[in-house]
Amino acid sequence: MSEFKPLGDRVLVEPIEEAQQKSAGGIIIPDSAKEKPMQGKVIAVGPGGPTEDGEVTMQVKVGDVVLYGKYSGTEVKIDGKERLIMRQRDIYGTIVG
Amino acid sequence: MSEFKPLGDRVLVEPIEEAQQKSAGGIIIPDSAKEKPMQGKVIAVGPGGPTEDGEVTMQVKVGDVVLYGKYSGTEVKIDGKERLIMRQRDIYGTIVG
Amino acid sequence: MSEFKPLGDRVLVEPIEEAQQKSAGGIIIPDSAKEKPMQGKVIAVGPGGPTEDGEVTMQVKVGDVVLYGKYSGTEVKIDGKERLIMRQRDIYGTIVG
Amino acid sequence: MSEFKPLGDRVLVEPIEEAQQKSAGGIIIPDSAKEKPMQGKVIAVGPGGPTEDGEVTMQVKVGDVVLYGKYSGTEVKIDGKERLIMRQRDIYGTIVG
Amino acid sequence: MSEFKPLGDRVLVEPIEEAQQKSAGGIIIPDSAKEKPMQGKVIAVGPGGPTEDGEVTMQVKVGDVVLYGKYSGTEVKIDGKERLIMRQRDIYGTIVG
Amino acid sequence: MSEFKPLGDRVLVEPIEEAQQKSAGGIIIPDSAKEKPMQGKVIAVGPGGPTEDGEVTMQVKVGDVVLYGKYSGTEVKIDGKERLIMRQRDIYGTIVG
Amino acid sequence: MSEFKPLGDRVLVEPIEEAQQKSAGGIIIPDSAKEKPMQGKVIAVGPGGPTEDGEVTMQVKVGDVVLYGKYSGTEVKIDGKERLIMRQRDIYGTIVG
Hints:
The first copy, chain A, contains one helix and ten strands; from the N terminus they run ββαββββββββ. In chain A, strands 8-9-2-4-7-10 form a six-stranded antiparallel sheet, covered by helices on one side. The first copy, chain A, has one helix at residues 18-25, and strands at residues 3-6, 10-15, 27-28, 37-45, 49-51, 54-56, 65-69, 74-78, 81-87, 91-96. Chain A starts with a strand and ends with a strand. Chain A is mainly beta. The first copy, chain A, has a single domain (10-95), classed as 10 Kd Chaperonin, Protein Cpn10, Chain O. β10 (91-96) of chain B pairs antiparallel with β1 (3-6) of chain C.
């Protein structure tokens, strides 16, 4: 098994398919939304560090379900599974319950 | 019930419909306004953190009625209700009374 | 009566009509001015806070007569009266006497 | 008489007419200059404060004769006299003697 | 043998050929990826220092297998071998196992 | 005699004519240079202060012969002599001997 | 003999001709490289100071062989020899051995 450790304020996210989002999370994104947000699960979190916003401390942790913009992140496959590498500043927040 | 916890300087806002705004708030936005402000109620508030403006401390709290720009925020539905995720810097101020 | 409390470095301003400006303030803006400044009275002042200029401390107070750029601020009506929400950095200065 | 108190790093300047500049100041601006500088006298000085350059301390004082770019500042008339509101960063320096 | 010592937050990277990536790393980049990431091995690391993000401390070390954007870095040949000089901010993270 | 005192990180420079540069300074600027540097002598130096680069301390002094970009500075005539007002960041360095 | 003392984070570099680079340095720049790096020898180093990246401390020293981008620096001739004035941030790193 391979492991990916993000650098800086980056986060590795497993996207949640739309069908699963509706039944599970209780949060539905209207199709009419200007920049449609997506749901995903945090798999790995960087150490933080200096960015154009200053020194970043990480506010998400492994296991968090997060909401992020549709065009956020870079696609990558790890051990055959689709993942997204994105920056914490691109994550809107976490979903609980 | 699902809960959304905003990250950074983000705020979750429940938009107030225009009909309700006029009777309740006493604040009317003229239709001729260049960038028409909208009213909403704060549902959840992020922890603050580093942004392009430096370290942000939150100045709004849950329950505040806020005024914000018409094109601010990202639309999302939580448990079937319309919400907006926006940044505190996009909020003009709070309405009291 | 409703009250508006500005956030950050924002200020609520009551615009002074041009006819009143000439008789009262002693400051006349020539029509030929490139970006015609306007006069207004400060109604409410935000707490200051982090902006793209760094941490802002408020230099205007309620009651100040201020000069600002013609295209500054966002129009809003509070209890039927016209107001402008603008940032302190858009205010040129105060008029005394 | 009205008085204008500049905010932030702004300065109120009384422009000196070109005819007077040549006889008085000893500094002549060639007509061929790319961005022709102008002379003026400082009438009022702001308290300084945070700007996009960081915290500004004022280096000019009331009475200084200053040199500034031709397109600097905002025109205003105070008690019928032409004045310019400009930022200290737009002033090249002071003329002595 | 020549040695290259990067300045600032720069890193010297030996690109890993795509054929080797699939068998070794377990991380596959889909061809459909918007900005296809690449794999490489860190050969040398700069001391860090001031950048447009502030003071940078290095988070990668010699021997790390890293993921970076396809168009990152500057190509150079050292003792006949292809290398890339890139900045740490262009590296997404490290691959372990 | 008039004196010009630069503000902030500005420097008053007396340009050295090209004929004199070749015999005196030993530094020749090839005509093929992309942005041809020029030589000048420092006449007055500002106190430094906050700029978009942060707080600037002056590194040139009156009497220094400096090299600067061809399009740097603002032309001005003081007591009939041609001068340039430029910022220290536009000066490449000083020439000795 | 003339000497040039760079200001700020500038460095004076003596370019190494391509023929000499191949035999001496062991580092070859492929002609296909997107932005072909060049080799040079450091002749003089500025004191560092404030830049758009913050306060810069110098990491190169006189005698270092450096790699830099093809379009970096400003061309100048000192005592008949070709030199380049560039900023430390434009230097990729140093070559040893």
